[in-house]
Design brief:
With 255 residues, the chain is of the alpha+beta class. It folds into three domains: 8-54, Uridine Diphospho-n-acetylenolpyruvylglucosamine Reductase, domain 2 (2-Layer Sandwich), CATH 3.30.43.10; 59-142, Uridine Diphospho-n-acetylenolpyruvylglucosamine Reductase, domain 3 (2-Layer Sandwich), CATH 3.30.465.10; 149-253, 2-Layer Sandwich (Enolase-like, domain 1), CATH 3.30.390. Helix content is 27%, strand content 29%. The chain has helices spanning 15-25, 38-43, 79-84, 86-91, 196-202, 209-221, 233-253, and strands at residues 8-11, 29-32, 51-54, 64-67, 70-74, 105-110, 113-118, 123-125, 128-129, 136-142, 149-156, 163-174, 177-186. Strands 4-5-10-6-7 form a five-stranded antiparallel beta sheet. Strands 1-3-2 form a three-stranded parallel beta sheet, with helices on one face. Strand 2, helix 2 and strand 3 (51-54) form a beta-alpha-beta unit. Helix 6 (209-221) packs antiparallel against helix 7 (233-253). It is globular. Bound molecules: flavin-adenine dinucleotide. The site of flavin-adenine dinucleotide has 17 residues, from strand 2, helix 2 and strand 10.
């Protein structure tokens, strides 16, 4: 089935208007941003929202700014705008690859006000986040990472395909030792998409090939990959370790 079920369509004129529309239509309403995930799911009838609230055109959600040392990314900033942004790239080179591992905060707004959630707590599982049915994600706030190196690497079967596995690293070195490490992992069953044990291992160690390889081994050990058409679990676990190592090497080269 490639035709969505019927739904109401509303174009929001402001964040306040979008929240009012979400309240009006209730839990079966969905916000549509790029539609890249939602529309295919509607066509396949895996999602059947009763109403779509279109937040395209809300300039207040489409800004990239720096506030109090934090990089503030509106939730309607396009990925391409982020990748091309000198403000974002100056903040962390990883924005020119992708973004992850940065210990950002998600700012969520609802009728009762605004709340901040660490991105590491944001995803509850596949297609599930902590954003409530009558709430809107409005910003991502990224702490000051200037002086740190960052990078993202992935393995995909074809350009544009879902990644088989991917890793991102952020690394700050002080007096020859790792002072801060952030590791993000996707598609390998890493709890909350990060590798805290490997991050903890790196702190206070010299940023060497050996310590990066050991961090990769630790990260792989804590993953729980699932076998699917992209490969068996052992292969994905291997990728988790190897991509973590490569991301750390690349991040260190960018410091
Ligand atoms: C072939 C393919 C390859 C992909 N590869 C990748 C990949 O490599 N990496 C990756 O990360 N993703 C990937 N994706 C997933 C997709 O690109 C992401 O999910 C995309 O970021 C969705 O953004 P969107 O703006 O299109 O969201 P939409 O499809 O518009 O919305 C997705 C969901 O988020 C909700 N939503 C949107 N905006 C808000 C908001 N401001 N507040 C609250 N809820 C909101 C919607 O209601 C909906 O439930 C891929 C998808 C496809 C189809």
């Amino acid at each position: 089935m490639q035709v969505p079920a019927q739904f109401a369509y509303e174009r929001a004129e402001s964040v306040a208007h979008a929240l009012a529309l979400l309240e009006k239509y209730g839990p079966e309403a969905r916000v549509v941003a790029g539609g890249h995930s939602l529309i295919p799911m509607m066509k396949l009838r895996l999602a059947q929202p009763e109403a779509l609230i279109d937040i395209n055109g809300l300039d207040e959600l489409a800004q990239i700014t720096v506030e109090g040392g934090e990089l503030v990314i509106g939730s309607m900033v396009r990925h391409s705008e982020l990748l091309a942004s000198t403000v974002a790239g100056g903040h962390a080179a990883v924005f020119h690859d992708a973004f992850a591992a940065l210990r950002a905060t998600a700012v969520i707004r609802g009728a009762d006000g605004t709340r901040a959630v660490a991105v590491r707590e944001f995803h509850e599982g596949p297609y599930e986040t902590v954003v409530g049915p009558e709430e809107l994600l409005v910003q991502l706030r990224v702490p000051d990472t200037r002086g740190a190196g960052s990078a993202y690497v992935k393995v995909e079967r074809r350009i544009g395909d879902w990644a088989v596995a991917a890793a991102a690293a952020v690394l700050r070195v002080e007096n020859g030792l790792v002072a801060e490490a952030g590791l993000g992992l996707t598609a390998v069953g890493a709890p909350h998409f990060c590798a805290p044990e490997a991050e903890a291992y790196l702190i206070g160690r010299a940023p060497t090939e050996e310590s990066f390889a050991e961090a990769g081994r630790i990260a792989a050990e804590h993953c729980d990959p699932q076998a699917d058409q992209r490969g068996p679990a052992d292969y994905k676990r291997h990728l988790a370790g190897e991509l973590t190592r490569r991301a750390l090497v690349a991040a260190a080269e960018r410091i």
